[in-house]
Q: What sequence folds into this?
């Protein structure tokens, strides 16, 4: 299957109206998020990383420990934007690096407070695959191998959230999108409390 081919539209999931797709840089989040959003009608794709670019002054790279307060502000704004689309009836996909240690629970809770059920999917690939894919990006801040490795480790051991992981090594973007759509329909990606 061509990874950019639009799959057949499917009915919106009954369990969740919002999906967070996350994982380390190079795991395939952006490509898969677009393919998943394209499976639903109507849908919205909220690019979480874009919201960090709106910080005009005082920006701190979000993987640094001192960025926690900034990241909390940005993630709350992402939640409001995503909830706005979901409120309007759009199946909404959030694409971004949503660290399970720091921002999974707050983002999930903010979306639930807004009245939405949330699904959570973590795309994972091997560290060498993530470094190779992310390093191919043109002068992107997240192309630094040390940063990629640091973020990769954030998703390596998910503990209780491991049921949300989808290993993408050896899988095309289209196959990953199909698996995600299936797991959305069966409710196995529904975010736990």
A:
């Amino acid at each position: 299957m061509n990874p950019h081919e639009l799959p057949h539209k499917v009915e919106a999931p009954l369990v969740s109206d919002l999906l967070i797709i996350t994982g380390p840089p190079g795991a395939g989040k952006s490509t898969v998020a677009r393919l998943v959003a394209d499976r639903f009608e109507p849908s919205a794709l909220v690019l979480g990383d874009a919201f960090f670019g709106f910080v005009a002054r005082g920006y701190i790279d979000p993987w640094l420990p001192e960025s926690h307060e900034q990241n909390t502000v940005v993630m709350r704004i992402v939640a409001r934007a995503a909830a706005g689309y979901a409120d309007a009836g759009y199946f909404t996909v959030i694409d971004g690096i949503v660290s399970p240690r720091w921002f999974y629970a707050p983002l999930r809770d903010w979306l639930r407070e807004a009245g939405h059920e949330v699904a959570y999917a973590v795309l994972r690939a091997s560290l060498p695959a993530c470094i190779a894919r992310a390093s191919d990006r043109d002068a992107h801040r997240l192309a630094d191998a040390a940063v990629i490795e640091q973020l990769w480790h954030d998703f390596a051991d998910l503990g209780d959230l491991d049921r949300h992981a989808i290993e993408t090594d050896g899988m095309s973007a289209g196959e990953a999108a199909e698996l995600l759509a299936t797991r959305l329909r069966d409710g196995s990606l529904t975010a736990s409390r």
